[in-house]
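Support case: user asked for a sample of complex input and structure output to validate their parser. Sending the pair below.
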Amino acid sequence: MCTECNLAFFLSPLKAGIVALSFTIALASLVALRRWKTASTRQRLSLLYVHVFAFVFPVLFFLFFRGCQSYFSGCDQAKAIATMLGLTALIAIVLAFALAPFIFVKRHTRKSVLMTGNHWSGFVKRHSRKLALREPRVFVVDSAAPVAFSFSFMQPKIFLSVGLFELLGKKEIEAIILHELAHIKSRVTFVKLSAYLARLLSPLSALANFLGGSSMSEEEAAADSFAAETQGTFSHLESAKRKIVHYYSERTG
Amino acid sequence: MKRISGNSNFDILSPLESDVLNELWPDGKLRVRDIYQKLRKQRKVALTSIAVILDRLFEKGVVNRQIETARGGLRYVYFPKQDKDQFEKSVVEQTVNKLIANFGDAAISYFNERFVKSKK
């Protein structure tokens, strides 16, 4: 290991300046991520990607220079910097793709109410036993939009919004819960949530489609079938979906 | 000419928003379904539309809401932030302020003319 060159890297005002600037951006985006309470999911995701990019960049920058600039002296400087930026972007995207669902779920868990000892937690307990699943915790999200999603890492969780309880009937909510249980059973909640979050940022929607395109629609159909088979009819799930679609068309219309 | 900004808290309400508020004011606190039950007697309306309208009014800062535990899960209870008179007064105040800010003397002289006319 070339200790002299490692020292030279940090003693160079340009390189040290780039590293400092990058870490400052990483820190600023992290502070914004924590403090900006009213930010939309899209804005939070953008900040997350900026944070990861700005954090990864100086590390790669240093690693590239570690071999006494052999890489940079051996080829075209501009090409080397472009390669490094591309590699940083790729690593940042993959890292953010993996981190985003955890941050999203953590934020929602903090703002949600845990449901225990009522019909819904009992329903989840009963059906998760039938599916030989670890019992998911049911959270109610403070949102008027009808939303349901699940996440399964260590402890499975199902999130249902207040709006869902406002708009749907008992059987329709049960259909939605069964649908989410099917997702937990097939262990796709992580990729599904990652793909959903990546899709919110238009430049990454192609990546999301690549990772979870047709396989996700098959997964959705399988989850629908499971809910319908358990209830003995498709009608509850269909009417729930109709109401949700109507809500969003009214909301955007 | 300056464009009048359109994202004030008290922009002119849609007919359904007004109907929803008119149901909320006398009762004080109501759930989405309560308002839906009242309004469906007067006009053809869907429960989802009422939910959307109430959420919009909440975002505009016209109504407030709190979560209550009901038999079937959790529900929002909505209540107006101001009574009808206060609300109307603040709409007029904000509209007049906006007009004066955007049109200055022209707006003031127009109000003067209208005031003199209405006195006659």
